[in-house]
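The data are passed on as follows:
___
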Amino acid sequence: MRKDKIVKKLIKKKISISVAESCTGGLVSNEIISIPGSSKIFNLGIISYSNQSKEKILNVKKKNIVKYGAVSTQVCKEMVENLYKISKSKICISTTGIAGPGGGSSLKPVGLVFIGIKYKKILKIFMFNFNKKFSRKKIQKLTVNEVVNIINNLI
């Protein structure tokens, strides 16, 4: 579904949204706020790229970053749960991943992305393994597309 239709749907249903982004670096927020009228529903966008910002702004526990890594189900979950507490938005989204071209490992390859979503009492973490040969931009764009699809399926 096209992003403008999603935003219009959010406006019609009066569903506010906030985003905490790491690997997408603001692209999810940009996709939403590029649509006229999005100010009615877009509440907060945080780019928490460094581990320090995840800890200080989103209150992600340092021990979880050390134990599981910033690119993990656990950190993605904490990012979205704490964003929900901070923003009070009806929908909260978090993204964390390895967009490449470097930074991957055999356990966490380039293209590994986690998307967290909290809506009402629903909390889900989605994991994607995009092709490690894709460019950084393509991995980020695919992540944004998945976020749009997830929101559409939720509302």
About this structure: The first strand starts at residue 17 and ends at 21. The radius of gyration is 15 Å. The longest helix spans residues 136-154. The CA atoms of residues 26 and 47 lie 6 Å apart.
